[in-house]
Amino acid sequence: MTKASGKRIPLLEIACRLLIEISIFLCGNFKKAHIRGGDNLGKIVVATFTESEEEIWKRVLSALDKDINPETIHSPVLRFENNLEIHPQQRQIVIAGVEVSLSYLEYEILYFLTQRPGWVFSQEQIFEAVWRIESDSCFHAVANTISRLRKRIEPNPKSPIYIKTVPGHGYKLAVQSIQTP
Q1: Is the pTM here over 0.85, yes or no?
Q2: Is the CB of residue 158 less than 8 Å from the CB of residue 148?
Q3: Residue 11, exposed/middle/buried by CB under 10 A (0-12, 13-18, 19+)?
Q4: Is 162 exposed, middle or buried (0-12, 13-18, 19+ CB in 10 A)?
Q5: Is the pLDDT score of 76 beyond 90?
């Protein structure tokens, strides 16, 4: 629960009100909305719109489309220098034609770094992007996972060609993307 104007309001009710505001933003012609149900787990939001269901879905999908990168959808394989390929839809890594098995976190770190080749990311940035939580003590988890990742993908983990350490700053993907025709 949280306080608003001296009155305690359940967080679920705040979430429902936020959903209503998002619906108004996306769909425009809004008639009414109310929250139904008994306990906190049983509540639902009932919203009535003046537009047809089809028109509302078109607007919602249009808003979502703005955040989708069409290049990622139409390009099933990401290719990089030194024969590194990432198949995002299958969550596969292929190096020089050989599939490399990675853990969930190893794959997520590699995929995260491939989104911006050459950019340097701190351990904290990597941790928050991959683990999806904030932490002040993430350094060992990131360093250990990158060490395991290097053992799986690097020809010589002590002299990496794919993931480089930038002392005092973090890590970067050291190979560039190859444009495919």
Answers
A1: no
A2: no
A3: exposed
A4: buried
A5: no
